[in-house]
Amino acid sequence: MRLRNKPGAKDTILNHPELILTDGSDWKGKWQERFGNDQPIHIEVGSGKGQFIVEMAKAHPDVNYIGIEMQTNAIISILEKQLEEQLPNLQLLLVDGADLTDYFADSEVDQVYLNFSDPWPKTRHEKRRLTYKTFLKTYETIAKPEAELHFKTDNQSLFEYSLASVTWYGMTIKKVWLNLHESNFEGNIMTEYEEKFSQKGQPIYRLEAIFNGKKLN
């Protein structure tokens, strides 16, 4: 979905370096210092307009959250929410999710969230899917051994692909939901897309998978 340009977005971003970074490489391996505590670090790759990451930060003040988004018009919406909330456990990164090893040290991240990622349905675009093996390798590199990946989507084909991809990669499937909103799952925080799709009666798919330590290749 194309987002409308917001006048002054770039200036707003540049004026708030305490909340949002366009290059986080200076904090690689030092994110807990930036937060000023030793709480676990959870990241969301592709945060969109930020409802999920903001509400997670509000609900879990004992966790540090980093929302990662490459579209300026999307992340400015998160920044606006954060300017209102001033959550001490939320930071934003305006960077490409493919380059996470430039911004996080090995084993620095405790959990990774992927919510309603672009399905890239054409076979020739498989490598762009955020659950493709090269992305999984990137997440594993920056994640602690036995860290978890949590994934949600309304797209059945992408969900089936992702189940296969994490399995082939050697991750352990912890739990799977084929219709999240009809389950007994507690504490679900919805994204903007999730609200939209669930209101239309579409099932929401979810999985939790565990990285099984560092790979040698």
What does this structure look like?
- By secondary structure, the protein is of the alpha/beta class.
- It has a single domain, classed as 3-Layer(aba) Sandwich (Rossmann fold), CATH 3.40.50.
- Helix content is 30%, strand content 22%.
- The protein is built from 7 helices and 8 strands, in the order αβαβαβαββαβαβαβ.
- Strands 1-4-3-2-5-6-8-7 form an 8-stranded mixed beta sheet, with helices on both faces.
- Strand 3, helix 4 and strand 4 form a beta-alpha-beta unit.
- The longest helix has 14 residues.
- The protein is globular.
- 35% of the residues are buried.
Radius of gyration: 17 Å
Q: Which oligomeric form is depicted?
A: single chain
CATH topology: Rossmann fold
Mean pLDDT comes to 94
- The level-1 CATH class: Alpha Beta
Q: What's the β-strand tally? A: 8
How is the main sheet built?
Answer: 8 strands, mixed
How many angstroms does the end-to-end distance come to?
A: 37 Å
As for the number of domains, it is 1
Number of helices: 7
Strand order of the largest sheet: 1-4-3-2-5-6-8-7
Low-confidence stretches: none
Helix content: 25-40%
What class, by secondary structure content? Answer: alpha/beta
- Succession of helices and strands: HEHEHEHEEHEHEHE
Overall geometry comes to globular
- CATH-defined architecture: 3-Layer(aba) Sandwich
Query: How large is the share of residues in beta strands?
Result: 15-25%
Region (Interaction with RNA): 124-129
Binding site for substrate: 122, 154, 191-194
Protein name: tRNA (guanine-N(7)-)-methyltransferase
Function: Catalyzes the formation of N(7)-methylguanine at position 46 (m7G46) in tRNA.
